[in-house]
Amino acid sequence: MKKLNISTLISFVFLLCMTLIWIFPLAWAFLSSFKDEVDIQTFGFSMLPVHWVITNYQDLLFDNSSTPVAKWFMNSMIISVTQTVLVLVVVSMAAYGYTRLRFKGRDWLFSFLLASMMFPAVVNLIPLYKIIDTLGWVNTYWAAIVPGAAAVFNVFLVRQFMIGIPLELDESARIDGANDFQIYTKVTLPLIKPVLTVVALFTFTSSWNDFLWPSIVFNDIDRMPITPGLQLLQGMYVTDIGHAMSAALIAIVPTFILYLFTQRYFLQSMSLTSGVKG
Amino acid sequence: MDVKLSENKRVDVLSPVSLKPRRKGFNVMPMVFIGPHMLLFALFFLIPIFFGVYISFTNWDLINTPEFVGLQNYKEILFNKESTFYAQLHTGLGNTFKFVVFTVPACIIIPLMLAAALHVKPKGSKLFQAIFYLPVLFSISAVMIIWSMMFNVSFGPINHYFSSAPNWLGTQPYAWVALVVVTVWWGIGGNMIIYQAALNGVSKDYYEAASLDGAGRIQKFFHITLPSIKNQLLFTVVITTIAQFNIYGQALMLTKGGPSSSTTVLLMYIQQNAFGSGQSIAGIGSAMAVILGLCIMAVSIIQFFLLREKK
Fold first, then answer.
1. 20 to 30 A Cα–Cα from A90, which one of A122, B168, B209, B225?
2. Using CB atoms and an 8 Å cut-off, which of residues 49-88 of chain A contact chain B?
3. What is the ipTM metric for this complex?
C-alpha cells in the first residue's frame, strides 16, 4: 500500500508540472489579448494586463478591413460545416456499398483504395491546384470543401464499423419490402451514428485547422478561411501582441468548444483508429 | 456442376435475402452508393498523383502546356551543384530530416511518460489528460502566433523567466529547440491516448509474476511494459515520422526558415517554386515533391513489412 502511494504521488507531481507547462501559453495568450499595445511597448513583459482593454477584439471583429477576422471566421464556418456534411453523406454511402452490396471486384476495389493511402499527399499538391483552377474554383469555398471528401480513411473507418452490424437486420427489412435506399437511411444510418459522430468531429476540426492547402487556393483576402488568414495577420501584428493573441484565440474558440462537449469521442476515437491500424 | 446448383438452391431457400427476385443485367446500385466517393477519389487523389509524377518530368509553369524534358529536373536538383534548386533541395531536405530526427524521439518519449504517469490514475488524471490533448485541436497558425510571442525577445515570458536571454528564433541551436518545443506541445496528444490504451491492455498477471521474481519498477517497465506495447510504439513511430516529414507551418511561421535558411524545410521551397511570387517553376517543384514523397513512402513501406512480420 505504501509503495502505491509513492508512485501515485510522483505521477501526480510530474503531471502537475507538465500541465502547468501546457496551460501557461494559453493562459498568457488569453491575458495578453486584453493588453493595450502602448502598455506592452512601455512595460515589456507582464503576466496580467496593466490596463484591461477589449479594443483588440473590437478592432479585429468590427472595423479592420486589412484583417477581416469576422469574415474569415464565417468563411471557415461555412467551409467546415459543408465539408462535414458532404463527407458524412459520401462516406456512409460508400461504406454501405462496400459492405452491403455485392458486385464484381468489390473487395479488390476496396483493397486498391486502402493501398492508395500509402501514397504521400505532397505529390498531389501542385496538380490538385491545377484541377481546382480548371474547375474555376480558386478563391471559392469549393476549393476547400470538395477535395477533402476524397479521403479514403473515413470510408475505411465507417466500413470497419458497419461490418460489425449483423446482416440479419438488413435482411428482415428487405423481407418487408425495403429497397437499398430505405435500408441505408432507416436501418444502417441510425446504427452507425457513433462512428459517424467521430468522423464528423474529425472532419470539422481538420477542415477548420487546414493550413497549407487553403493558403494555396485562396489569395483573395475576403474569401480566405481563418487558419491561413492568421498567417497574413501575423505579418501585420509582428510586435502587437494584443491583436495577435486575440486573433489566435478567436480562431481556436470553435474547436475548443467542440472539445469541451465531445471530449469523450475524441479520446475514444484515437484508440479506435490505432487499434484498427496497429 | 450439379452439386453447385443444388447448393445454390438450398441457399436460396434458406436465405431470406434471395426471396426477393434477383434483378437481371447490370446492377446500378453499387454505382449509386460508391460512385460519388469513387468520383471524388479519382478526380482529387488518383489523377493528381499520376499528374504530379508526370509534371516532375516537364518544364511546367502552371499555365502553358507542360513540355516533356525527361530527367532534366531531377538532374538539376540532385546533381547540378551550381543550380539554386540544387541548393534548395539539399538545404530543404536536410532541414526536414533534421526536424524529423529532433522531434520524433521527443514525440514518442514524452507522451509515453505522460501515459505511464496517467496510468497510475492519480487525482485529476482525467483533467490532466484532457489538457495534454487540447492543443491537438488547435490550428498550426494559431499555435504559432502564440508561441512566436512566447519566444519574443523583448516581452516574451521565456526570456523574462530565464535569466540567460538568447534570441530564440534568430540564433542556432535555439531556433531548433524552439521548433521542437512547440511541436511537442502541439502534437503529442494523439500518441499519449494510444499509449494509454496500450498500457490498459497489458495483463496485470505479468507484473505480479515479475514482482514475485523480485523485479523492480524500472526492470518491469523495460522488460514487461515496453515489449507488451511494442506494436503501438512501432505504429506511433511510423505515423509520427510521416507527420513530421510534412513539416511546414512551424518553420514558416515561427522561425520563418531562419536564421539564414537553417530551418527552411523542403515543403517551403516546393510551395515557393510552384506558387510563390514570380514565374511558377512547377516542374522543379514537383520533382522536389516526388523526392519528399519517396522519403515518406519509404517509411510507410518499412511499416508495412514490420507489421506483416508480426503476423
1. A122
2. none
3. 0.91
